C-alpha cells in the first residue's frame, strides 16, 4: 500500500486559470481597439488631423512595446500550478542517493566570511545521511581567509551537527538560530540538559566567531582578482565534538586557477570547476547549488527535492528542482521590492504549470547527468576528450555511478595531478564546456541561459515551494545595490535575447509556445526602459504645447484607454493582495518598476548592446553583502536611501523636473485656452507620475537625513541641463515633424 502512494502531488489553480484567461481576453480586446485607434490616425488627412506625426508615432511605438511585453507576460498566467511533497514516503536512508552541495564565494570583502561559513554549516547540517553529503566551496577570491575559516567551521561543525541532530533543531544555520527571537525548540524546550547544551554550543559559536575575526585580522584580505594557482583541499575532520561522535559530511575547499589572460566566466566558470572536481571525488547524482549568502533555513530540502528526483514518473526527464529565492532581510513594506514578489510568487508558479520554472542561480537540486550535454556512452575516448577535456578520470566518472569518497586523502592539499588539472584555467580550452556541457557561458545570467537550454533539450524542471522557506538569502535593501545588480541582470538577460539563443527564434521548435513566451518575457522585459522614458517626456511636452495625443473625454475611445489603464492596475493589485501583499506593496511595486526602468533597465540595455558590438566587456560585480546598520535602519523605516551615484539620480531628477514644469505650464495653458477635454489624459499623467514617485521629490526637497538626495551642484546642474536640452530639442522637433 505504502509504495503506491505518490511522492508528490500537483494542483492546477482552476479558479485562477479562469480569472486570468478572462482578464487576458478583455484586456487583449481593448488593446486591439487601441491599435485600431492609433492606426486610423495615419490614414487621416494630414491637414485635418491636428497632431504632428512624430509624437503620435513615439507614443504608439511605446504602446506597442508595452503590449508586446504584456502578451509575453500572460504566458506566466496561463496555467499556474503548485505542488505538495511527501518526504515521509521516500525509501529508507540506506537507499537514498548521495548529494553534492556547491557553494560559491568570490570576495571576502563583500561577502562576510562568517556569513559564508554559516551557509556552509547549514548545508552540512542538512537532514541527510552525512556520509552521503559532500560540500564543496568554490572560492573565486583564492583567499586564505576562506580556507582557514573553513577549517574552523569544520571544528565547530563537530559540535553543531550532533547538537542539531540530537535536539532535532529546525533552523540549522547557527547565526539565524542564535539570533532568532524565538526558537521552536520543540519537545526539548524545557529540558535542563538541552538548555545546558544550548548554552555550551552558544559559547562555542561565540568562540568560532572570534576565531573567524582573528583569521581575518591575521591574514590581510588580499582579493586576488588577478592570478592565483589552483588549490583543492579536503578539510580535516578532527571530530573533537563531545556531545556525541557523529560522522561529518565531506568538506572540500576549491580555488580554481586564475590567470588574467584566460577568461574565467564568473560564477558559471566556478560552478563548472566544482562540477568536474566533485565528479572525480564523490560523483553524486544530484547537486545542490547555493550562493554564499543563501543558507538552508530548514534541513528538509534534500528529501523534498528527492520526492521529485526519485519519482519514476517524473525523474527520467527532470533536470532540476528549484526552490524559490526567499530572503531573511525583508521589511514589512519592502520599499525596493527586494523579495521580487512577482517572480517567485507568480511567474515561477506559472512556468511550473508548463515545462518548469527557470533556473534561479541558487537553491536548486540539479541532476548531474542533465549537464553532460549531448555526450553518448558509445563516443570514443578521443571524441569525448574534445567534448569534456583531457581528464581520463572525469571521462570515467561519466559512466560510473557515484562512489564513496574514501579514496581521497583527507587533510592535505590534494596531490592528485588530475584534480589540479581539472581546476586549471586552460582545461576548458577547445572543449564544449560552457557551450554544451555544464553551466553555460556567454552571459552573466548563466542561470536563465542554462535553464532555458535544458528546457530546449527536452529536460523539465519543477518548483518546490513548501510553506516553510527552505533557503533564505540576503537581498539588496538599498537603492544603489539594487540598481547596480539590476544593470548586471538586465544586461545579462538581454544578452540572451540578442544572441542566437533568442527564445522567440530558438524556442518555438523545442518547447511549447507559452514556455517560449515566458523565456522571451525574461529576456526582453528590460526593454521597458523605452516606453517608460517616452511616457515620462513626450505626452508632457505635448501638453505644454496643446498637442493632443489621446482621445478627448467625449470620444468612445477614451474609455478604451481608461479601461486598459485600470485593468492593468487592478490585475496587478489583485495579484499583490492574493500573494500576501498590501495596497502599499502594490504602490511600491509600481514605483520601483518606474524607477528601475528609467535607470537600470536603460543602462542594462545599453550595456548589452555595447557588448554585442564588442565595445564593452562582460563583468560580474558581486553584490555587496556586508550589512550596514544605517542603511538597514532606513530600509526598515521605509525611507529610500538615495546615497547612490549621479548616474542613477540624474535621470530621476531630470524626469521629475520635466514633469513638474510641464504640468505647471500645461495647466496654465489649458486654463487660458479651455481645451481640457482634449488634454485630459495628458493632464492626468504628470501628477500621476509625480505623486507615485513622491519619495524622489521628498528626497530632494523635504528630507534632512543621511539618505536624502543631496542637492549637490553637480546633480542639480546636470539634471537641469538635461531637462532643458531634452525639452528644447524635443519640443521643437515634436511640433514640426
Ligand atoms: O566571479 C564570480 C562572481 C560571483 N560569484 C558568486 O556568485 C554568487 C551570486 O553572486 P551575487 O553577487 O550574490 O549576485 P546576485 O545578483 O545576488 O545573484 C543572483 O544573480 C546571479 C546571476 O547574475 C545568479 O548567479 C545568482 O544565483 C542570483 O542569486 C555569489 O555566491 C558569488 O560569490 C562567483 O563565484 N564568481
Ligand atoms: Mn546574491
TrEMBL record:
Biological process annotations from GO: cell wall organization; cellulose biosynthetic process
Q: What is this protein called?
A: Cellulose synthase like G2
**Residues at which Mn(2+) binds:** 267, 291
Pfam families cross-referenced by the UniProt entry: Cellulose_synt
Which keywords has UniProt assigned to this entry? Cell wall biogenesis/degradation, Glycosyltransferase, Membrane, Transferase, Transmembrane, Transmembrane helix
- Where does it live in the cell? Endomembrane system
Q: Which InterPro entries match?
A: Cellulose_synth, Nucleotide-diphossugar_trans
Q: Which organism is it from?
A: Canavalia gladiata (Sword bean)
Any idea which positions bind UDP-alpha-D-glucose?
110-111, 140
Report the transmembrane regions from the record: 22-41, 53-72, 524-544, 556-572, 647-668, 680-697, 709-734
Which cellular component terms (GO) are annotated to the entry?
Answer: endomembrane system; membrane
Q: How does it sit in the membrane?
A: Multi-pass membrane protein
Q: Which residues form the active site?
A: 140, 447
Mention one GO molecular function. cellulose synthase (UDP-forming) activity
Amino acid at each position: 500500500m505504502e509504495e503506491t502512494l505518490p511522492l508528490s502531488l500537483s494542483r492546477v489553480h482552476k479558479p485562477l486559470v479562469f480569472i486570468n484567461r478572462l482578464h487576458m481576453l478583455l484586456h487583449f480586446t481593448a488593446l486591439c481597439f487601441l491599435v485600431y485607434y492609433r492606426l486610423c490616425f495615419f490614414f487621416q488627412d494630414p491637414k485635418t488631423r491636428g497632431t504632428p506625426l512624430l509624437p503620435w508615432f513615439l507614443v504608439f511605438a511605446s504602446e506597442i512595446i508595452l503590449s508586446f511585453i504584456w502578451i509575453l507576460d500572460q504566458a506566466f498566467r496561463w496555467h499556474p500550478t503548485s505542488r505538495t511533497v511527501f518526504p515521509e514516503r521516500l525509501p529508507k536512508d540506506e537507499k537514498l542517493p548521495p548529494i553534492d552541495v556547491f557553494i560559491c564565494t568570490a570576495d571576502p570583502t563583500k561577502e562576510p566570511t562568517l556569513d559564508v561559513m554559516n551557509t556552509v554549516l547549514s548545508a552540512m547540517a542538512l537532514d541527510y545521511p552525512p556520509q552521503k553529503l559532500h560540500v564543496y566551496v568554490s572560492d573565486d577570491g583564492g583567499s586564505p581567509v576562506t580556507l582557514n575559516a573553513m577549517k574552523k567551521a569544520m571544528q565547530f561543525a563537530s559540535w553543531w551537527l550532533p547538537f542539531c541532530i540530537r535536539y532535532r533543531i529546525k533552523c540549522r544555520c547557527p547565526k539565524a538560530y542564535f539570533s532568532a527571537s524565538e526558537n521552536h525548540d520543540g519537545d526539548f524546550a524545557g529540558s535542563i540538559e538541552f538548555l545546558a547544551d544550548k548554552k555550551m554550543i552558544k559559547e562555542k559559536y561565540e568562540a568560532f566567531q572570534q576565531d573567524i575575526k582573528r583569521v581575518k585580522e591575521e591574514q590581510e584580505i588580499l582579493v586576488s582578482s588577478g592570478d592565483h594557482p589552483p588549490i583543492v583541499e579536503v578539510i580535516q575532520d578532527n571530530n573533537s565534538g563531545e556531545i556525541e561522535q557523529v560522522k561529518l559530511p565531506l568538506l572540500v575547499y576549491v580555488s580554481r586557477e586564475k590567470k588574467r589572460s584566460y577568461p574565467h566566466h564568473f560564477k558559471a566558470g566556478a560552478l563548472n570547476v566544482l562540477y568536474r572536481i566533485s565528479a572525480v571525488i564523490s560523483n553524486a547524482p544530484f547537486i545542490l547549488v547555493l550562493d554564499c549568502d543563501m543558507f538552508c533555513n530548514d534541513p528538509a530540502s534534500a528529501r523534498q527535492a528527492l520526492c521529485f528526483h526519485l519519482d519514476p514518473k517524473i525523474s527520467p526527464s527532470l533536470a532540476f528542482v528549484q526552490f524559490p529565492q526567499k530572503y531573511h532581510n525583508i521589511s514589512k513594506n519592502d520599499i525596493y521590492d527586494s523579495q521580487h514578489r512577482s517572480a517567485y510568487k507568480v511567474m515561477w508558479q506559472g512556468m511550473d504549470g508548463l515545462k518548469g520554472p527557470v533556473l534561479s542561480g541558487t537553491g536548486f537540486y540539479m541532476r548531474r547527468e542533465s549537464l553532460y550535454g549531448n555526450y553518448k556512452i558509445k563516443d570514443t575516448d578521443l571524441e569525448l576528450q574534445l567534448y569534456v577535456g583531457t581528464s581520463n578520470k572525469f571521462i570515467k566518472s561519466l559512466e560510473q555511478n557515484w562512489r564513496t569518497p574514501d579514496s581521497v586523502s583527507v587533510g592535505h592539499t590534494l596531490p592528485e595531478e588530475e584534480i589540479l588539472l581539472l581546476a586549471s584555467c586552460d582545461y576548458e580550452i577547445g572543449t564544449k564546456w560552457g557551450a554544451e556541457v555544464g553551466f553555460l557561458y556567454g552571459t552573466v545570467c548563466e542561470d536563465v541561459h542554462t535553464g532555458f537550454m535544458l528546457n530546449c533539450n527536452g529536460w523539465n524542471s519543477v518548483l518546490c515551494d513548501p510553506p516553510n522557506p527552505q533557503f533564505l538569502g540576503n537581498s539588496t535593501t538599498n537603492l544603489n545595490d539594487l540598481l547596480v545588480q539590476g544593470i548586471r541582470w538586465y544586461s545579462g538577460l538581454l544578452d540572451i535575447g540578442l544572441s542566437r539563443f533568442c527564445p522567440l527564434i530558438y524556442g518555438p521548435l523545442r518547447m511549447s509556445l507559452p514556455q517560449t513566451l515566458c523565456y522571451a518575457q525574461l529576456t526582453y522585459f528590460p526593454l521597458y526602459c523605452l516606453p517608460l522614458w517616452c511616457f515620462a517626456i513626450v505626452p508632457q511636452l505635448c501638453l505644454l504645447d496643446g498637442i493632443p495625443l489621446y482621445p478627448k473625454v467625449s470620444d468612445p475611445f477614451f474609455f478604451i484607454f481608461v479601461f486598459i489603464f485600470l485593468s492593468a492596475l487592478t490585475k496587478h493589485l489583485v495579484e499583490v493582495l492574493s500573494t500576501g501583499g498590501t495596497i502599499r506593496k502594490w504602490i511600491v511595486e509600481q514605483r520601483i518598476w518606474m524607477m528601475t526602468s528609467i535607470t537600470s533597465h536603460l543602462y542594462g540595455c545599453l550595456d548589452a548592446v555595447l557588448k554585442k558590438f564588442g565595445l564593452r566587456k562582460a563583468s560580474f560585480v558581486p553584490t555587496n553583502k556586508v550589512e550596514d546598520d544605517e542603511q538597514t535602519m532606513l530600509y526598515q523605516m521605509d525611507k529610500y536611501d538615495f546615497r547612490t551615484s549621479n548616474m542613477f539620480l540624474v535621470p530621476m531628477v531630470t524626469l521629475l523636473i520635466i514633469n513638474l514644469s510641464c504640468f505647471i505650464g500645461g495647466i496654465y495653458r489649458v486654463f487660458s485656452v479651455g481645451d481640457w477635454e482634449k488634454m485630459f489624459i495628458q493632464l492626468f499623467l504628470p501628477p500621476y507620475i509625480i505623486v507615485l514617485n513622491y519619495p524622489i521629490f521628498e528626497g530632494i526637497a523635504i528630507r534632512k537625513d543621511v539618505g536624502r538626495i543631496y542637492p549637490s551642484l553637480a546633480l542639480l546642474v546636470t539634471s537641469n541641463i538635461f531637462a532643458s536640452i531634452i525639452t528644447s530639442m524635443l519640443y521643437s522637433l515634436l511640433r514640426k515633424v
